[in-house]
Amino acid sequence: MTDETPWLTREQLRAWMKLVAVMELLPATLDQQLQRDADLTHFDYMVIAMLSETDTRTLRMSALASATNASLPRLSHVVSRLEKRGLVARCPSTSDRRATDVRLTDDGYAAIVRAAPDHVRTARRVVIDALTDEQVAQLDGIAVALLSRLDPEGRFAALTYPRGDDDTAICEERLTGASSD
């Protein structure tokens, strides 16, 4: 029996180990800032941020799972926790009686408005500002390549977010009051 494992080259291993370090350190950094400043986890933040980007501040659970790159069981657990805090509310879907919608409450909206500026500053400080514009474009390309392998069916919304180059993220306009005009 021969070993046919395609081992990583030294250069590949060097890049892989750095990616592993980023995957470990970045979530902890984002969680730490949000916990300290807003009493939210990063995933809590993503849930309420995605709800804040809709005109009605409401999404079907399955759509919210896709928007947050989460499984329905994980999302359900987090929504229950956010619901107890009064940040979201579950309600029957108006378009499908079998489905459940999640609505961002006024308190939830206030929480995202308070949390967003520091969170964006942290994301800029630890990722975006560390890169040149060219590197940000490369990061986008690398992320697309990895996501096409990790999510080949396109179940999650990351590959199509934001919706288009000429479509300012709704939350940016709502949270900052700035218009893209």
What does this 3D model show about the protein?
There is one protein chain. The protein is mainly α and 181 residues long. It has helices at 10-38, 42-52, 61-67, 72-84, 106-126, 133-150, 170-176, and strands spanning 58-60, 88-92, 100-104. It has a three-stranded antiparallel beta sheet with strand order 1-3-2.
Brief sketch in words of this structure:
With 181 residues, the chain is mainly alpha-helical. It has helices at residues 10-38, 42-52, 61-67, 72-84, 106-126, 133-150, 170-176; strands at 58-60, 88-92, 100-104.
Going across the biggest sheet, name each strand in turn: 1-3-2
Through-space gap between termini: 65 Å
Task: List how many beta strands DSSP finds.
Answer: 3
Approximately how much beta-strand content do the residues carry? 5-15%
Number of helical runs? Answer: 7
List the uncertain runs.
Answer: 168-181
**Could you give a short account of the major beta sheet?**
3 strands, antiparallel
Mean pLDDT across all amino acids: 89
Q: What is the chain-wise order of helices and strands?
A: HHEHHEEHHH
Provide the gyration radius in Å.
19 Å
The helix content, as a percent range, equals 55-70%
Please state the overall shape, judged from the principal axes of the Cα atoms.
Answer: globular
